[in-house]
Each structure stands twice: as C-alpha cells, then as structure tokens.
User: What shape does this take?
Amino acid sequence: MNELLEKLSLAVESGKINKLSPYPPAMRGLDGADELCQQALEAGIKPEVILNDALIPGMGRIGKKFSDGKAFVPEMLIAAKAMSAALKHIKPFFTSGEVKRKGVFVIGTVMGDLHDIGKNLVAMMIEGSGWEVIDLGVDVKPEKFLEAINQHPDCVIGLSALLTTTMVNMETIVKQIRAQYPDHKILVGGAPLSHDFCKKIGATFYSSDPQGAVEFLERSVA
Amino acid sequence: MKTIAVKEISFEELTLTREDVIPLLGGESDYAFLMHEYLDTLFELGKQIFQIKGGYQVFDKLAFNQERQEITIGDITFDVKKVVFNMLRRSSKIAVFVCTAGDQIHELSRQYMAEGDMLKGYVYDLFGSLVVESAMDLVQNSLKSDLNSEGLTLTNRYSPGYCGWTVDQQKNLFALFHPEFDFVKLSDSCLMQPIKSVSGFIGIGHDVKYNDYTCHICDSSNCLYKNLKKQG
Assistant: This one.
C-alpha cells in the first residue's frame, strides 16, 4: 500500500487527530489524520481510495480491538475523532458525487429510553465506514423511523435500547415498519438484547458491538 | 435503627478518587493524560456539578417464597429471581434504597456529545455513574453503623436490572417509598430521573453476609466493572 495511506490508516487507528494533538505520545509532532488526508489528496490519490484503503481499515482495526476486549471506549472515541478530521477533506467529494456513500443508516434510541452512548458509538463507527448516518436521537417513536424510511427508502434502520423495559418497544417499532415495509433491513443492538430477541421481534440483525454492526452493513451492500 | 433516612451528601464527602476512575477508562495507557485532564476538571467542579441525595427505608414485614423466588414486602411482591432471592432470603429486614447524583452531570455529558466532543461526554457520563455509586456507599455505610449496635449485618446492594431481577420491578420498588423519596422519579419505562440514580434492596439480618466480589453471580452485560474484568 502507498506509504501515505499506511500512515493515514495508522493515524486513524491510533487516534492521531492532527499535528498539534498530543496523543498518542509516540506520534507527538508528527502529522495526524487531518494533514495526512490532505496530503494524500494533493498527491493525487482518489478520495475513494483514501476512504477504502486507509480510513475504513483504520477504524476497522480499532473496532475489532474493542470487540475483542483489547480496547476501551475512549480509544474508539479518539480514533473516531481522528477519522472525522480526515473525513472533513473527503466530504466535499461525497457532496459532488465523486465518492459514493455506501448507503444511508438511520439510527435512534427507541421510545421510552434516553440512553445514547452505545447508539452514538455505533453511529460514529458506521459513519467512519463510509455511510451517511442520520441520528434521530433518543426516545424515538415509530413514526419518526417511518418518516425516515419515506425520505430514504434504501436506508438501513438501527434501533438501540439499554433497558429490558424499553427493548420491548423495539418490537412495536419493528412491527410498524414491517407493516409498511416487510423487507426493510433493521439492525438492533443494546445491552439486554440477544440474537433470539432479534429473531422474535422480526428484526434483521443483532449486533453486540459497533464493529458487528459495521460488518453487517458491509455484507448488506456486498 | 432509623426506619427512614434521607440525606444530602456533598461531593467532598465521597471517597471516590481518580484511582477508582482511571482503570475504567483504560488505565495508565498512552491516552491517560487526556483522561486526567478531564478528571482534574471534574474533581475541581464536583461541588458545583453534583446535587447528591440518597436514603433508605427499612421494612420488616417480609415474606419469602422459595419456590417462586419471590419476596413480599408489606403487600408488594417482588419477583427477584434466583440469585437475588438467595442473597436476601435470610434477611429479617430489607432496606429499600435510592440515591442520585442529580441532573447536571447528565446534562453536561449530553451537551458535550451534542457539541461533537464524544470523549468528554463519555468521561462525564461514566464519572456520574461512579459518583452515585460512591454516594450510595456512604448511605450504606451509614446504615451499617446504625445497625452495628444491634449486631445486625448487611448484604450487598441488589438492583432491578441486575442478577436476573428485571427492570420493570422498579415500579413495585418505587411504590414502597415514603413521599420523602420523591427526589428520584420513575418514567413509564422504568427509567430513573435523574438518570444518574441507583435503587434497590439491601438485606439486613443476623445471618446475612456481604460479599466483596459479586460479578460472578451477575449476568449483566451493561456493567463497567464486568467490562473491566473482560479487558483485564
């Protein structure tokens, strides 16, 4: 792989946001994701290649470490910040259509539930994997998800819940979506959930961690 | 022994230290200095940020149904499931507790997240969780001191949502409380408000015990300490 892309990928994985950012200490004074992405574009590397060969693999590696219990939440969040610093250079190409998003992912914490850390983590990881993410927030009612599907018919829906009392609201939301869109892709996640629960309520996929959600989406567009 | 105790707790009274927090944020890793910066602010501003209040109400009209693993307090029955039932079944009294760190820490956490600083928001959120647990330690210690003269001991704290005891049982738990405990409210979906609050049971008796380590009896996947164990 191009050396610049390798450095960029490592900067994202390590959470090296820009030259001024003091973290990680071993990369102090070096260019970060911000500068390296700019340099890659200036070197004539196509934005799509930067995205697919450097940014997404960098986030993927930190996501995998988290899934394996080898990284803590802060490391993921720092990496996501580095990813964002790089993505700001790529975003104009999304807007112009030169680089295509992989799709639209609509996420929300279900009605009755106000917990959002898990949802936010998933949203950041998925955005970092090349998707447009629409975050509906917390305490989201079925109508909001239906409205989002109306606006983005090919989107994938993500439902999050942290409590056993609110995960049952997922069933209501899934039922209402299925009534109008029987085959729509619906991803569910949250601490009390399981594959069995996902199957029972008729959702498409359950992931216990953000990386699993990213991999599901990758498969869904393959 | 007081049957009802409610107290406001100042941030300075807590025994929480940064050594309690850092391991949950990844330990003394490469990025620990960032965490220390946030913690410097939190420990400095703690007095202004937190509105801590907690208490307990002791009940002695108890009935235990071994077959159904249910505990009845007064006329309210709790389906506490096997683990919690076994830990509490020798209790002669049960203290029902609630404690909160107040609204502000959650609001600050969400504000930072909304501004795009997810990391700061996350650290504030986690700190709020640890503050309320630390405050509840004080409440529990106060109950313990109160009981020492009577030769009674306490169990660990057990809460709906953990060890198989379902969150919907919060409704029954809050139905037990004297109006003095209305500083924490419960939503229809059993979410406590302020969010950084804890509630549950503590068993009291001559034949109950406190376990220093209880992770092995709990199947919660939403617990900081369990995740720490997984990563350690």
User: Anything to note?
Assistant: The two ends of chain B are 41 Å apart (CA to CA). Strands of chain B lie at 4-9, 52-59, 62-65, 70-73, 76-79, 93-100, 153-158, 185-186, 192-193, 197-205.
